[in-house]
Amino acid sequence: MKKIEKGKPQLFISARQIRKRIDELANQINEDYRDRIPIFIGVLNGAFIFLSDLIREIKINCEIDFMKLSSYGDQKITSGQVKMIKELNCDVKGRDVIIVEDIVDTGLSIKFINKLIKKGKPRSVKIATLLYKTGISKLDFKVDYIGFEIDNKFVVGYGLDFAQKYRNLKDVYVL
Ligand code: IMP
Ligand code: MG
């Protein structure tokens, strides 16, 4: 039987703080892509709430697609293996792509996605993530739009899960 950790999630980033930060990120994106039609690529499942809130603050024309990876299973620690479960449906050739992630932890997933998207010869690729674990990820490229930089904590809520639970919470909590 699977062992689910007990303990009450502690409030970490409130829905109000998230909303405010998303407005700021969206303003920046609206400005940066003024004359473009970017494709937002959401990484399922975690990014679904962040993307849906972000996209509604985007005032320029844009498109949306999703991809799905699996690397964690039901563990808190990464298995170190990234698998593609759902591929993209759109053609990114010559397009401006914005990858939307819930969190960059070790950076393994975003590295995998970034490399894969670039194979499709897009015009540009930028990355937006709600959360970024500072000091954990060793990336050789930059993450352009960061909601919040956080320490090495395991967080849930606002799309982020532990063993598929807690995604529905409005705020971000530390488990
Ligand atoms: P990375 O490949 O280690 O950067 O991890 C990326 C993925 O692991 C994220 O997209 C999340 O789905 C998951 N993940 C990493 N850290 C956390 C966390 O603190 N809470 C919930 N999910 C996490
Ligand atoms: Mg994820």
What secondary-structure arrangement, pairings included, does this model have?
Elements: E1 10-13, H1 15-32, E2 39-44, H2 48-55, E3 63-70, E4 83-86, E5 96-104, H3 108-119, E6 124-133, E7 145-150, E8 155-156, E9 172-174
Parallel strand pairs: 2-3, 2-5, 5-6, 6-7
Antiparallel strand pairs: 1-9, 3-4, 8-9
Helix pairs in contact: 1-2
Bound molecules: inosinic acid and magnesium ion.
The site of inosinic acid (IMP) has 19 residues, from strand 5, helix 3 and strand 8.
Give descriptors for this structure.
single chain; 175 residues; alpha/beta; Rossmann fold; 6-stranded mixed sheet; 3-stranded antiparallel sheet; 3 helices; 22% helix; globular; binds inosinic acid; binds magnesium ion
